């Protein structure tokens, strides 16, 4: 598998505040990565930095062999980064189908495939964005990112605030995207259990730097390590 994305010693933040401190990790094509860590360690800032929304003061970001460290935010979105923001940002006065349609770009993903992945969205296709439940909005936010036909899907706390039954449905869909569709993804999560189940590789951040990197399954199976890193052991 070839390298898709690499952060090399990236130092970045907001204004004079440094949040990421020589952060390094890489993702290969078709691979999914969980970014874990306690509150405020820089998980969201990592995605914001990838999207070009922070001030980078050191290191470099390589995307499909190209240095994009200084590329403008709009160029990155067009280059195949499918961003699902934490706030979901569904258009409230457009229907589900319109929300999906306005961002569509040519490629393998289209309305029919998004509806197959999320049958609830097909049922709600004529509803407006502001008539959807939180879970449906999250499905729509993911569906919209897929309609742009990305090469890397960026999910920022996709399960936040959702009912357990919806969390299961979403986790299944995300797992299918990674395992069956071979879509590379980054999943930022505060809750490690689901994130590790959904991904191939995991990194744990502390104060903007990587303190653990390895296969998700190995970390999920090592409750002592998980507890030491995150203060949450897996149930026996
Ligand atoms: N727009 C911003 N301007 C200034 N500082 C910010 C901004 N966004 C985040 N920060 C600061 O950057 C640090 C890292 O925040 P970040 O959101 O990346 O953490 P996180 O690991 O995603 O945490 P959480 O799980 O709480 O979202 C925090 O100290 C936060 O206050």
Automatic annotation (TrEMBL):
Q: Which SUPFAM superfamilies match?
A: P-loop containing nucleoside triphosphate hydrolases
Pfam families hit by this protein: ABC_tran (PF00005)
For whether the record's keyword set contains Nucleotide-binding, the answer is yes
Which PROSITE patterns has this protein been placed in?
Answer: ABC_TRANSPORTER_1 (PS00211), ABC_TRANSPORTER_2 (PS50893)
Tell me what this protein is called: ABC transporter ATP-binding protein
What residue stretches are annotated with the ABC transporter domain?
A: 5-232
| CDD domains, sorted | ABC_TM1139_LivF_branched
Read off the PANTHER family from this record. ABC TRANSPORTER ATP-BINDING PROTEIN, HIGH-AFFINITY BRANCHED-CHAIN AMINO ACID TRANSPORT ATP-BINDING PROTEIN LIVF
SMART domains assigned? AAA
Any one Gene Ontology BP term: L-amino acid transport
| Family to which the UniProt record says this protein belongs | Belongs to the ABC transporter superfamily.
Alphabetical keyword list: Amino-acid transport, ATP-binding, Cell membrane, Membrane, Nucleotide-binding, Transport
**Keyword Cell membrane carried by entry:** yes
One example of the protein's molecular function in GO is: ATP hydrolysis activity
Family matches, as InterPro entries: AAA+_ATPase, ABC_transporter-like_ATP-bd, ABC_transporter-like_CS, BCAA_Transport_ATP-bd_LivF, P-loop_NTPase
